[in-house]
Amino acid sequence: METKKEVKILLWIAIVFGVAFFLPIESARFNSAIAATLDLVKWYAREHVVLCLLPAFFIAGVISIFVSQGSVLRYFGANAKKWLAYTVAAVSGTILAVCSCTILPLFSSIHKRGAGLGPAIAFLYSGPAINILAIILTARILGFEMGVARTIGAVSFSVIIGVAMSLIYRKEEKVISLLF
How far are the Cα atoms of 102, 167, 172 from residue 126, in angstroms, in the given order? Predict the structure, then answer.
């Protein structure tokens, strides 16, 4: 018998019991917080999952079906010209109106199709930041200069972050590039 493990389990049981025992369920403030939490979960499931995540998974599936691995490798692969790969990856998010969590399936799709980590990360970083709606909204609310600054900053930083990630994980990239 492992006493340390058993004591740890007992401690967790005691903590959970203590939390359950002292829950202020008679408090109106507590009940309204729980109701607000459940309302937010309902909104998230209806609005975000259905309207954002499902279309993103659909687009990722379309990419994996209709975009050939050869074209992904040609523009984003290990043997692609670096300036072209990072430029295309950093600006291709302008045509997608996606948020930071819906870009993840798209990133995964192009990375699994053979895109290098650097260009894929550049796409992942710049996609939500430079979509046309975000740029227009930024320029409209904060001014034209801020819209341009957001675009230039997002593209520049996405390339910098992509190159940095590519350098940090270059050993893994070599192993993956041998597979494709």
Answer: 13, 19, 23
Helix (H, G, I), strand (E, B) or coil at 77: coil
pLDDT, one tens digit per residue, over 70-120 is: 777 777 776 778 888 888 888 887 777 677 777 888 888 888 878 888 888
Q: Residue holding tokens 């499902």? A: 54
Q: What is the pLDDT of residues 128-159, one digit of tens each?
A: 888 888 888 899 999 999 999 999 999 999 99
Q: Is the dihedral of CA 17, 22, 25, 29 positive or negative?
A: negative
Extended strands (E) in 81-162: none
Claim: this prediction has a pTM higher than 0.70: no
Q: State in Å, rounded, how far the first CA of the chain is from the last one.
A: 49
What is the Cα gyration radius of the chain? 23
CB 170 within 8 A of CB 113: no
Residue 47, token pair as written in the block: 């609005």
**DSSP conformation letters of 11-56:** HHHHHHHHHHHT--TT-HHHHHHHHHHHHHHHHIIIIIIIIIIHHH
Mean pLDDT of 153-166: 92
Structure tokens at 57: 């998974």
Tokens of 110: 């192009």
